[in-house]
Amino acid sequence: xxIVGEEIFWETAATGIVPISVSWGFELPPSNALAKVxxxxxxxxxxxxxxxxxxxxxxxxxxxxxxxxVVPNQNDPAVGDxxxxxxxxxxxxxxCQARMTxxxxxxx
Length: 108
What we know:
0% of the residues lie in helices and 81% in strands. It is mostly beta strands.
């Protein structure tokens, strides 16, 4: 099965000592798609415990009834579905600045 298209998004977030969780959502027409995340930039701010953890928070898929079902996720680095309609990527970070990439591959 060949890849027939690809979308790449990147988002940046920063925080101090107080940890935060940020998320970004992307919608797409019902597609045979694979979404995967990673971080491409990381800069710790101090001598405290700093960390970053990107992942897929949830995704939606079109059911045969025509309704979109939201599928919760455990912050996995990748998810795929033959009828994906949306994906929400998230990043948990503390005492740092980081950039996360989300790649959505479209398969035949």
